[in-house]
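Sanity check

After download, print the first record. It should look like this:
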Amino acid sequence: MTTAATWLVALLGQPVGHSGSPAIHTAAFAAAGVDAAYLAFEVAPERLATAVSGLRALGALGANVTVPHKTAALALADAATEEAQLVGAANTLFWRTGSTGEAVLTADNTDAAGLERELRDDLGLVAGDTVVLFGSGGAARAAAVALGRVGARVEVSARRAEAAGEIAELAARAGAVPDEVGEPRCVINATPLGLAGESLPARFMTLGDGQIALDLVYGVSETPFLRAGAAGGATVRDGTGMLIEQAALAFERWIGSAPPRSAMRAALAT
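Expected C-alpha cells:
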C-alpha cells in the first residue's frame, strides 16, 4: 500500500513502455521490505531537465535514466561518480551526503559493470576475444568500457566514423585493443534499432556456430538481429542479463544494501 511515507523511484526515458525495470524493482523492494514505488515516466528530451527538477522537488529516492537521456542526464546532476565520468553517460541518479551535510544528486553508471558481468559470467568472454560493437550512444559507451575491462579486441561500427572513433578510444582507455575484426566471436548491438524491428547492416546478420549475437534491447519480441543469429546457429542473448545486473547495482545505490537478485529474476520470468 502506497502512503505519504512511500519513497518514489522513477524511470525517465522515451519510450519506456517496454521496460522491465518497474517489475524488477517493485519485486526487489517488496522482497527487501523497502517502502518504495518504482514508476516509469515517458519524458521527451526537451523535458528532461524539468523532470529531474521535479524529482528534486518531490524528494524522490532516485531514478533510472534510459534511452535517449543517458548522456544528457550526466550534466543535470550535481556530481558524478568516476564510473559515470569514464563512460560519459548515466543510467542511475541517487542522493549522497555532501561535505557540509547537503544532499547531492549524483549521476552513476551501472550499465558497464552490469554488462561486464554478463560478458564474463554468462557468455564466457576472455581477454583477446574479438568483438564488433555497433553503436555510438550511451549504451555503446558502457559496452566499450565493459569490453575494455574484459580485455577484448574491439572493432566499433557506427553510422558516423567520428562517433565510432570516439567509442573506440573509450574502449582503448578502458583496456581494449582496437582492431579490425574479420570473424568476430561476438557482435554487440548497442543501438535501439531492434525496438522498431529494424535490422542491422548486412555484415552483422550472418553470424553462425561458435559466434555470439548480443542485442542490448530487451522487452520486445526477438529482434531481426537475434533472429538471424539464431537461424545461423549463433548463441543469442538479449539485454535481460545486463538489465538484471545494472538494476542490482542501482538498488545498492538507492538502498545501501545487497539486492535480492532472485526476486528480480523471478519478476521478469512471470
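If your output differs, re-run the checksum step. Summary of this record's structure: The mean pLDDT is 94.
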